[in-house]
Amino acid sequence: MNLAFNHLSVSQLMALAAILEVRNLSRAARLLGTSQPALSRHLAQFREALGDPLMVRRGREYVLTERGQALLDPLRDVLAGLERLSSPAEFSPARCERRFCLAGSDYVAQYILPGLLHDLALQAPGVSVEFRIWQADRYDWLEDGKVDLVTTMLEDTPADYHGRVLGEDTPVCCMRKGHALARQARISQAQYLSWPHATISMGGDKDSFIDAHLRRQHLRRDLKLAVPFYSAALSVIQQSDMLLTLPEHIARQWAQQADVCARPLSFIEHRFRYWVVWHSRIQSSPEQQWFRQFVFDHCRSSRFLSPGDAWPPNHTA
């Protein structure tokens, strides 16, 4: 690269481009809002640095030298590129063609993803989605770009990450409808500890608050099964006496389609917080801003976080 260009400012590049384009210092000065003597000084500096007059007089006009003509198109390209860099990127969902990676639980995949994809096809038909099962504390996926956005349960977002709260929910104890505890209005701690338990190991933290509460009393529950998927846990509790602690809105959804019911816990209070979370590196990306707003709005407008009124609707099996 010619060393003459090493210390040129953007305003100097614009001055050179204007001089070469209009080939008239007075007109170029008016276009740039500067004075003719200032442009004359710039032209003298360019000529000395480049070792070429750049433009020469022919009669009453100026014409470009071969070197001046050769510089004109590259200068236009450079200035146009700088303009694109300094201008906000325009984004249109209808014209977007890229794949986003969304992470969440298998519950999200089963109950949220179909409606989300339906709405996505209407708004951004060129966009595709890869869904990945979220594993607790795998924030390196967001940092490395393997995942764009995650929906999960958290107390708060870690450092260097951003998030928005989708909503809150309360824990309930889920069981098969024929279970002995299904006749109870609320589940006491003694009743809770009298039966075996299952837990869902993937996704957000669903029941560690229970174990922390029990440890403070030097107690523990009889944890018979840890399974990664909601769907597997549902099958297990329908065919056993195991109890499963999970958010109320999920239990309510299950009760509408499976032979299960849920009851509140009388011995502990807890609130789940649902988030969409992303990494700082994509905070300002127009495409990412649109996608996370789209996911956020869809989750908020769906029944994803709508546990409803009083729970349970009745206390009978």
Q: Can you put this structure into words, describing what you see?
A:
Helix content is 39%, strand content 22%. Helix 1 (10-22) packs across helix 4 (66-86) and helix 6 packs across helix 12. The termini are far apart. With 317 residues, the chain is α/β, with parallel strands linked by helices. The longest helix has 21 residues, at 66-86. The strands form three sheets. It has a five-stranded mixed beta sheet with strand order 4-3-5-12-6. Strands 9-8-10-7-11 form a five-stranded mixed beta sheet, covered by helices on one side. Strands 1-2 form a two-stranded antiparallel ribbon. This is LysR family transcriptional regulator. Keywords: DNA-binding, Transcription, Transcription regulation. Residues 8-65 form the HTH lysR-type domain. Belongs to the LysR transcriptional regulatory family.
Give me a quick take on this structure:
This protein is an alpha/beta fold and 317 residues long.
SSE layout and pairing:
Layout (H helix, E strand, L loop, with lengths): L9 H13 L2 H8 L3 H15 L4 E4 L2 E4 L1 H21 L12 E6 L1 H6 L1 H11 L4 E6 L6 H5 L4 E5 L7 E9 L1 E6 L12 H5 L2 E5 L7 H8 L6 E6 L2 H9 L4 E5 H8 L4 E5 L7 E8 L6 H16 L16
Parallel strand pairs: 3-4, 3-5, 8-9, 8-10
Antiparallel strand pairs: 1-2, 5-12, 6-12, 7-10, 7-11
Helix pairs in contact: 1-2, 1-3, 1-4, 2-3, 6-12
